[in-house]
Write a structure and sequence with these properties.
CATH class of the largest domain: Alpha Beta
Distance between the termini: 5 Å
CATH superfamily of the largest domain: ATPase, nucleotide binding domain
Number of strands: 16
Largest sheet: 5 strands, mixed
Order of helices and strands: HEHHEEEEEHEEEEHEHEEEHHHHEHEH
CATH topology of the largest domain: Nucleotidyltransferase, domain 5
Bound molecules: zinc ion
Helix content: 25-40%
């Protein structure tokens, strides 16, 4: 794999001139001219016209370069209980197709084989031949070992030590990348979402759905941690007297502020919403109890986000997950609580925004990790 930084910069910010590419990557302009020629010869990059920069030396017109969208495709598989999805992105990150469905529940092996075969079917339906696929990304909730492509543990599914990559390699061959959905969303935000236009952005991504988790991208790299368990902010203790958590401890953020926690807390008050999706639906309809629970959740998530900001000083915090069904309502309350608590140096503080992909973030992210591996990972 050649020139990963140039390819990734094009994915993030194209069209760009050779001079802009040189500035963003720190490579010399003669080197950039050579690299762009190589990428053009490979069919990955082409010129898309000229533009006169507003403040350029001598007002020279600069040819713009862009990736060739149909030079390759990435497949993403989101493994979820109800909203599993197969998504195909082109080489520029454009959405080609996406399909949502509910896989058969139960043991991991039949579930994963079903999803692999469904992805293969969808490629055939869209008419993309196997040789045009640059990679397959699979995201599965839990702690994932990216090197071995295994799921260590998924409290959500009750699965442990599952060879996820092997299940997909049986269908697609050796080009499968595995991550958790929140990690996948963070990569999508970096490549073509809220962080893509911020060179060298350090990003904290916080996902609030039935469960709560985070992922951090610093220095352009997803941070995995020593045991690949980085970002488990759902298990930060926030209330010594709070509910028992799925992890066995008491008062974790996940146990008091996640979607599943809110449904359980409502039931304690005699209000049966059924699922978090139903609770969100009630909130959309103006249900005061549901809105109060969500407001309380946003305040608690915001406090932990405030501490993340104090400790890591990210450029950007993006909030994803089912709470985006309420537009920016939840994110606005997270921001307020976070900035009230964080130690910030600049007056504005870091930007705290909604994920660029709304409720489709997990599906888009799953393909984004495959695309990122293709453009960025050195061979
Ligand atoms: Zn916990």
């Amino acid at each position: 794999m050649r020139h990963p930084l140039v390819r990734r910069t094009l994915l993030q910010a194209a069209p760009l001139s050779r001079a802009e590419l040189a500035d963003r990557t720190g490579l010399s302009r003669p080197a950039m001219t050579e690299i762009c020629q190589e990428l053009t010869d490979l069919g990955l990059v082409r010129e898309t016209g000229v533009r006169t920069p507003s403040r350029s030396s001598m007002g020279r017109r600069r040819a713009q370069l862009d990736l060739v969208a149909d030079a390759g495709y990435a497949v993403g598989v989101l493994v979820a209980a109800e909203n599993s999805a197969v998504t195909i992105l082109d080489l520029k990150g454009g959405l080609v197709a996406t399909q949502r469905f509910r896989p058969p529940s139960g043991a991991p092996e039949p579930t994963l084989s079903f999803l692999a075969l469904t992805a293969e079917d969808q490629l055939a339906r869209v008419g993309i031949p196997a040789e045009r696929i640059v990679g397959v990304g699979v995201s599965v909730p839990g702690v994932v070992d990216p090197e071995r492509g295994r799921l260590h543990l998924s409290p959500f599914f009750g699965w442990s030590n599952v060879p996820v990559r092997a299940a997909f390699e049986a269908v697609f061959g050796p080009r499968v990348t595995v991550a958790s959905p929140v990690q996948a969303i963070a990569v999508a935000e970096l490549l073509f979402g809220s962080a893509s236009r911020l060179p060298y952005a350090d990003l904290a991504l916080v996902n609030v759905s039935t469960a709560i988790a985070a992922a951090f991208v610093f220095g352009g790299r997803l941070q995995q941690g020593a045991d690949s368990a980085s970002g488990q902010i759902g298990h930060v203790p926030v209330d010594a007297h709070g509910r028992r958590c799925r992890c066995g401890r008491r008062g974790c953020l996940d146990a008091v502020a996640s979607g599943d926690a809110l449904v359980a807390l409502a039931a304690q008050d005699g209000e049966e919403y059924g699922t978090f999706s139903d609770l969100l639906g009630a909130a959309e309809g103006g249900d005061a109890h549901a809105l109060a629970l969500l407001h309380q959740s946003a305040r608690q998530v915001g406090k932990v986000v405030g501490d993340v900001i104090t400790m890591l000083d990210p450029t950007l915090v993006a909030v994803s997950g089912m709470v985006l069904r309420l537009g920016t309502w939840y994110v606005d309350r997270v921001r307020e609580a976070a900035l009230a608590r964080a130690f910030v140096v600049s007056e504005a503080g870091p930007r705290i925004v909604a994920s660029a992909f709304g409720v489709d973030a997990g599906a888009v992210g799953s393909a984004a990790i495959a695309l990122d591996k293709f453009v960025y990972q050195p061979a």
